[in-house]
Amino acid sequence: MAFEGLAERLQGTMQKIRGKGKVSESDVKEMMREVRLALLEADVNFKVVKEFVKKVSERSVGQEVMKSLTPGQQVIKVVKEELTELMGGEESRIGTSKRPPTVIMMVGLQGAGKTTTTGKLANLLRKKYNRKPLLVAADVYRPAAIKQLETLGKQLDMPVFSLGDQVSPVEIAKQAIQKAKDDHLDYVLIDTAGRLHIDETLMDELKQIKELSSPEEIFLVVDSMTGQDAVNVAESFNEQLGITGVVLTKLDGDTRGGAALSIRAVTGKPIKFVGMGEKLDALELFHPERMASRILGMGDVLTLIEKAQTNVDEAKAKELEQKMRTMSFTFDDFLDQLGQVRSMGPLDEILKMLPGANKMKGLSNVQVDEKQIGRVEAIIRSMTPAEKQQPEIINAGRRKRIARGSGTSIQEVNRLLKQFEDMKKMMKQMSAMQQKGKKKGGFP
Ligand code: GDP
């Protein structure tokens, strides 16, 4: 999971200051020393770290914190706000051209995930926003890339425009735009050529395509696993071509997260999407606040709910949202969710979106042992309806019965009950903050 090390260290640091009734300058200093190290270790650009630490320190010893009744929590709030700001603050929108079709150029180095992302973006545009995209194969130097896009088009049942590898990319782009107009398609996604390194010929060609097609967006696809290199690539592309946004891929891997935290500050260009897997539905809009929340272990209930809305029955998702907000989440809901959640993606990713999930050792172990989920299900199924609705009635005798009924141990039952309680507590703490976040955001 991305950000694992950073999240762990930052959360450890925050934990120390959370409950403090008084925060002195030296507390802040010490905390910031740890924050600084955590960020540097996560491969965040050192200038970015310096600036971040400076801002958080200034605010933390300022009036808003010192005069507050809960200074410890105020400091954490400051860290979260600044982390959000660092990654872009407000969410950005995707441009739509006044005169369709809207052209989006996809650029990036070879292997970054450009072709896959082109397919994912087309899928998202159609699935979530009901748009009709045309995929354009303009990487004429790598015939395999053309084939790859055609295969993606087939999988998605979407049109792919290609003129083979003997026609210039500029000409391909030109004819593709005409084709989209003729066929009343509203987005043209141009998969341009990649290289192993940035070179002049590539940039010249991209500039020509830009000139001719007046793209609304130029998305640079970078691999988050390459850390600072991704940031350098973004800087070069931006200087030479003028990108409008970045797609950060492979965030499902165990990247330390430096690129995600540095790109915006270094290039001034926002991260618009993140790639969370190889499948065609593994592309998410980037929400800086939600990401900050995930890094600080506050969970990401909103993304969880959205996933539920796209993958699960809508009425049920609404119900879940309501329950999470009103804290009337029971073991019945939990069981129901366990079943549905499986359709939303890898379980470990999903569970980590729950507030405080990192502290629930049992839950986070699920990532290595899917069987564990089966045991959790068995425990819940062994509860009576009353127990599922009101776990507080589960006394020692009942625990014994449940353990026996589910073929597990009393310790396991205890652990689950404790985790469930913790989860509800965290949800409570977070719901106010999440409510605020919900008001923001949007798309075309
Ligand atoms: P291109 O050369 O930039 O067009 O890169 P490709 O689209 O061919 O992708 C290179 C590899 O990265 C492929 O194996 C993709 O499946 C993989 N890939 C792309 N995006 C992601 C992602 O978000 N997560 C993971 N795990 N793999 C990805």
UniProtKB/TrEMBL annotation:
The keyword Nucleus does not apply. Part of the signal recognition particle protein translocation system, which is composed of SRP and FtsY. Involved in targeting and insertion of nascent membrane proteins into the cytoplasmic membrane. Binds to the hydrophobic signal sequence of the ribosome-nascent chain (RNC) as it emerges from the ribosomes. The SRP-RNC complex is then targeted to the cytoplasmic membrane where it interacts with the SRP receptor FtsY. Interaction with FtsY leads to the transfer of the RNC complex to the Sec translocase for insertion into the membrane, the hydrolysis of GTP by both Ffh and FtsY, and the dissociation of the SRP-FtsY complex into the individual components. InterPro entries: AAA+_ATPase, P-loop_NTPase, Signal_recog_part_SRP54_M_sf, Signal_recog_particl_SRP54_hlx, Signal_recog_particle_SRP54_M, SRP, SRP54, SRP54_GTPase_dom. It is found in: Cytoplasm. Composed of three domains: the N-terminal N domain, which is responsible for interactions with the ribosome, the central G domain, which binds GTP, and the C-terminal M domain, which binds the RNA and the signal sequence of the RNC. It comes from the Bacteria. Its EC number is 3.6.5.4. It is an enzyme of class 3 (hydrolase). This is Signal recognition particle protein. CDD domains: SRP_G (cd18539). GO terms for cellular component: signal recognition particle. Belongs to the GTP-binding SRP family. SRP54 subfamily. Keywords: Cytoplasm, GTP-binding, Hydrolase, Nucleotide-binding, Ribonucleoprotein, RNA-binding, Signal recognition particle. One of its GO terms (molecular function) is GTPase activity. One of its GO terms (biological process) is SRP-dependent cotranslational protein targeting to membrane. It comes from Domibacillus antri. GTP binds at residues 108-115, 191-195, 249-252. It catalyses: GTP + H2O = GDP + phosphate + H(+). Residues 270-283 form the SRP54-type proteins GTP-binding domain.
